[in-house]
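Figure 3 (text version): structure tokens given as input.
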């Protein structure tokens, strides 16, 4: 009898072990302060997809068991609530904590990569002028550094997530005739994610491929298409002293159309753009902890540019302004509920507290030398987005073969 009882006890403990571990993980993830009273929210105009996790529901879920499988960003009124709980060493907890953050940054980075490809085609169109001599094949190389800061509002007791990225790209494009131009580029990137108040960090090394084509049915109008794919190796350095590696894939498609209006020596180019991006983050533990994300956006803006002849070539300065509306923002995975409620382990702002509308302004110049060499620089920064600041600097050189 005693032997039978011992066997039953052993079997019971073996069966309960994963449940205990999962409960410990959920206890960490769902440790929250006192509930916050939410103002009434009209969800009818926030867009909708399946598995929408709303703030009150996310808090109720987080306080019991975090079981929601996805969310869409909606109301910008939910405050971020930083916690200082050390994650469990269980790999599943790592995905619960960090998966959605990686997916969200992947979506944003892919959207920016597509926007830069569209700007590249704007340069090609500007060089259609006979004096620019931009027919045929060109090769180029660029280097960029960018920074993004989310949160850090002392009045709301939030701490910041800081994302930095350095990348290099080489590419080639070919102006077939006055109507068609196409090109492709490959690049390497190094992304760093840091959280105030936490020693956890993520370092990512990635490679990307971008292709683009521009069609100008008339001398003034154009339609441009860009596609980008990036594969990244992500290393999570957690507070428990361990490293948790995973991989992620980010991809996107961008379609834009616009019109170039000549105004003497200046050209005004209003445009509209539609972007669709997707992100897939691998598991830090079992396959059930993978994270997927997708996002759509529409943008409208205008660019103004001119060419200034000199004794040694041309100076081509430009400036632009752009407004973007996020039309959809979806993340699915174990970390979705804690991410959307702003009550996860990391001191980062809730995505619901980040505006879905924002703007970008940029300026730059190209120095077109007589030897067929062009040196160019571009700087842009974001505006009109609460609790978020961004900037990027790009330098490059282009050579006509």
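Below: residues designed for each position.
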């Amino acid at each position: 009898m005693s032997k039978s009882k011992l066997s039953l006890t052993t079997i019971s403990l073996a069966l309960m072990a994963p449940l205990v571990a999962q409960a410990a993980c959920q206890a960490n993830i769902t440790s929250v302060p006192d509930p916050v009273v939410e103002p009434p929210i009209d969800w009818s105009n926030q867009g909708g997809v399946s598995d929408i996790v709303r703030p009150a529901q996310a808090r109720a879920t987080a306080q019991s068991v975090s079981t929601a499988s996805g969310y869409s960003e909606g109301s910008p009124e939910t405050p971020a609530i930083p916690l200082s709980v050390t994650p469990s060493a269980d790999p599943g907890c790592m995905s619960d904590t960090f998966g959605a953050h990686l997916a969200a940054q992947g979506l944003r980075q892919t959207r920016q990569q597509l926007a830069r490809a569209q700007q590249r085609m704007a340069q090609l169109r500007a060089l259609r002028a006979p004096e620019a001599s931009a027919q045929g094949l060109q090769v180029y190389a660029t280097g960029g550094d960018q920074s993004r800061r989310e949160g850090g509002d002392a009045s709301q007791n939030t701490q910041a997530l800081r994302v930095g990225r350095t990348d290099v790209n080489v590419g080639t494009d070919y102006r077939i005739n006055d109507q068609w131009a196409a090109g492709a580029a490959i690049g390497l990137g190094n992304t760093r994610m840091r959280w105030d108040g936490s020693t956890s960090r993520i370092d990512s090394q990635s490679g990307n491929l971008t292709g683009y084509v521009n069609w100008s049915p008339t001398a003034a109008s154009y339609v441009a298409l860009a596609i980008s794919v990036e594969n990244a190796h992500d290393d999570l350095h957690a507070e428990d002293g361990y490293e948790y590696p995973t991989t992620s894939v980010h991809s996107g498609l961008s379609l834009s159309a616009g019109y170039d209006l000549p105004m003497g020596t200046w050209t005004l180019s209003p445009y509209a753009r539609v972007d669709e991006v997707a992100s897939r983050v691998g598991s830090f533990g079992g396959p059930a902890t993978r994270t997927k994300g997708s996002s759509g956006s529409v943008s409208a803006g205008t660019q103004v540019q001119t060419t200034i002849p000199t004794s040694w070539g041309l100076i081509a300065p430009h400036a632009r302004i752009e407004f973007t509306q996020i039309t959809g923002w979806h993340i699915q995975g174990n970390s979705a509920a804690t991410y959307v409620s702003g009550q996860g382990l990391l001191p980062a702002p809730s995505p619901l507290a980040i505006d879905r509308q924002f703007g970008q302004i940029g300026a730059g110049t190209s120095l077109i030398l007589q030897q067929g060499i062009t040196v160019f620089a571009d700087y842009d920064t974001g505006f009109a987005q609460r609790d978020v600041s961004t900037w990027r600097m790009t330098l490059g050189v282009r050579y006509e073969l």
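The two ends are 88 Å apart (CA to CA).
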